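Running this now, will post back.
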Amino acid sequence: MSERETADGYAEVADQEVRSLRTRLCRLRTGDGEPVAELEAVSFRLRFGAVAVAAEGIGGVETQPGFRRQGHMSRLLRRALDGMAQRVDVAFVSEAIEGLYEKFGFVGALAEGSLVVPVRAVESATGADLKTDVPGIGDGSAADLPAMIRLYNTAHARRPWTLERQRDWNRLVPPATWKPGSRTLVLRAGDTTAGYAVLEGRAFGDPVGSVTVDELAAEDATAARLLLVALARLCWQRRLAEFTVREPADSLVGRVARGMGCVYRQRFPSSGGMMAAVLNRPALVTRLEPELRRRAVGRGPDPFHDTVFGALRRGNLVPDNRVLVRLLLGHWSAEDADTHGMPVPARHRDLFTAWFPGGGTPVLPTPYAHRLDRY
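Update: finished.
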């Protein structure tokens, strides 16, 4: 990035430091080299259903106290997004500040959801004796990570907003003095890892008031049921009536928990939270054409597909990129777009509805972002 003179008379320098293959640190400095603001641009591959595309996310946004409320972060964000648009077609923010990112084209495109499971419901549904250990359950270690990555990718292979975990993935939180670390429970069947649960850690001295699971994946319903029993036993030991599992309701774990009896709590932020922005519309839509064809496969050959797809790519259909990214991710359905003033020509409605059924359908699972993949 280059140096230039600003209206208030000092030199602005923005530079990029490649920290790793996946993270760039973007800084804004004065002409004297004094740090003004910085942010991280994180590279990953993110799913829009069965297709994963290259994307970048913004995190670690910070302005030095003496330079706040002077427009520096807006300047850095615009320049960072310009750079991102040279590399990827879509951008994300994990935990956006309310009311800030909308002016840069971002829009909320994910609902927060979790399962709340009563201990009595697990006990009643399974007949388990919570006084005894669950066979095969033990504490996990780094040696279990390859199997955990495989189970996670299999469980969420077609889920929008899911990151593909690579072989070197390890976002487990290490324990430290006064800081909670991740605790992993693993279910083993012989030499095979059949499932795992990553529990949110508690800081030393915190009251034992809850059990929260950041993620839970299993190879089948039997394994999921055993892990839920192990969590119910942990709650029984701590005299807790329920536990929380941060998994979508339409996942395998969600279906097993619903069969036992649970509550699914979901929140739809109007601003902030998980947000997305389209940087290069034609390129993004082109990359996702195989996914759109997959969603519409049940309709059979459509003579108008190429015509309607071309209109979508050019922006003649769904001209607002904020609406488009919500539709592509499954946060909105075609009916949602229509409700919010984005009508579709009647002759294309059937194809449009097949492309954008909304999450939580057999064709398109509910969009979900697990805590351990947030940045």
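The first helix runs from residue 72 to 85. More later if anyone needs it.
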